[in-house]
Write a structure and sequence with these properties.
Blueprint lengths: L2 H22 L7 H4 L6 H4 L3 H12 L6 H24 L3 E3 L9 H8 L12 E2 L12 E2 L18 H18 L7 H7 L20 H11 L2 E2 L20 E11 L3 H11 L2 E5 L7 E6 L10 E11 L9 E7 L11 E5 L11 E7 L5
Parallel strand pairs: 2-5, 7-10
Antiparallel strand pairs: 1-7, 3-8, 4-5, 5-11, 6-8, 6-11, 8-9, 9-10
Helix pairs in contact: 1-5, 7-8, 7-9
Length: 367
């Protein structure tokens, strides 16, 4: 068989496999906004699109200034219904459907709600020491231990990196003091312009993106972060208003953890929530469940907070038990599982093991 014929046969097989997977996975949830993504035929997918769009607008409080904008967003919404169905076929252990981002194009979503830059690590970023892994618990969740603040919302600002960094320092401060404080992302957005001296233009730049390790470097040099309530979040770039007398949490050091998942788990258990980078391509349509895509890029573009891990007892196609990481996101509680995302462990899915950092808190006397 010649090479073109072989390639055509392979593509046909993959297409049939994807279609078969999509038709066999039916979410248990009765919500029509979810069930719409797994119809019997593609024609049915858009049959009630106008009704679903009305429900979407009501659910998420969406309004549009003109009829032209409304019609354009309806077209984007229909395209995202088709995209969610494709994601369902590629990621059958999660549920994909309508989310608060269903009227955004993929490029709008990336520009406004991600924001992790691929920068080189700061010179002060140490390699985390190897920890013992033989006595790790089967399941672990820092939310149950009081080390995680409520889910926040970055809004239409590419500041995910700042929320990931504050979440890690909030956890580290809690481990040291027993006090859970909500720290200021806006201080990082306004004041952190830390750059990599070896790479031109690689600077933290507010709503235009940044890197968690650079945020730790800034916090180390600045002397710490203020409380959220003292320096509240606006979701826009503004002038720096940092008041060092109001610092409540400071960084003593930070480290980059190896990509070994046992080491990531050990650092999570012993050192608190971890700053993590991930490829967010499946997150725009994610509703719930354990995301374990068959295909997902490793190029990370979103910063989140690793708060725990566990295993799920349902019967997916590939595994009898699906171990997963629990990630705190910064898109509000109306996204995902009340603001959290589960992604499978063991495969570096979507690059989740590629950029993981731990931070240690320096005791401060301010309250």
């Amino acid at each position: 068989m010649d090479r073109p014929t072989t390639l055509v046969s392979l593509l046909l097989f993959l297409s049939l496999l994807t279609s078969a997977l999509a038709s066999t996975v039916t979410p248990n949830d009765a919500d029509p906004l979810i069930q719409q993504v797994v119809p019997e035929a593609n024609d049915n997918l858009l049959l009630h699109a106008e009704h679903h769009f009305s429900s979407f607008k009501a659910t998420f409080g969406k309004t549009y200034a003109t009829q032209e904008e409304h019609d354009y967003r309806f077209g984007v919404f229909k395209a995202n219904l088709r995209r969610a169905k494709r994601h369902q076929g590629l990621d059958p252990t999660a549920v994909h459907g309508v989310t608060k981002f269903s009227d955004l194009t993929p490029s709008e979503f990336r520009r406004n709600f991600l924001g992790l830059k691929r920068l080189r690590l700061p010179s002060d970023a140490n390699k985390a020491p190897i920890l013992p892994t033989n006595d790790l618990p089967t399941d672990f969740d820092w939310r149950d231990k009081g080390a995680v603040t409520p889910v926040k919302d970055q809004g239409s600002c590419g500041s995910c990196w700042a929320f990931s960094a504050t979440g890690a320092l909030e956890g580290a401060h809690y481990l040291q003091t027993g006090e859970l404080l909500s720290l200021s992302e806006q201080q990082l957005v306004d004041c952190d312009h830390e750059c990599d001296p070896e790479e031109f233009g690689s600077c933290d730049s507010g709503c235009n993106g940044g890197l968690m390790n650079n945020a730790f470097e800034y916090t180390l040099k600045a002397g710490g972060l203020e409380r959220e309530k003292d320096y509240p979040y606006t979701g826009t770039d503004d002038t720096c208003k940092f008041d060092k007398s109001k610092v409540v949490a400071a960084v003593s050091n930070f480290s980059v953890i190896s990509t070994d998942e046992d080491q990531i788990a050990a650092n999570l258990v012993h050192h608190g929530p971890l700053a993590v980078g991930i490829n967010a391509v499946f997150m725009q349509t994610y509703v719930k469940g354990v995301s374990c895509p068959y295909i997902c890029g490793k190029r990370i573009d979103h910063g989140v907070l690793l708060v725990g891990y566990g295993s799920s007892g349902f019967a997916p196609i590939r595994f009898k038990v699906k171990p997963y990481w629990i990630l705190k996101n910064s898109w509000g509680q109306s996204w995902g599982e009340e603001g959290f995302y589960k992604i499978c462990r063991g495969h570096n899915s979507c690059g989740v093991d590629s950029l993981v950092s731990t931070v240690a808190s320096l005791h401060t006397s301010n309250h």
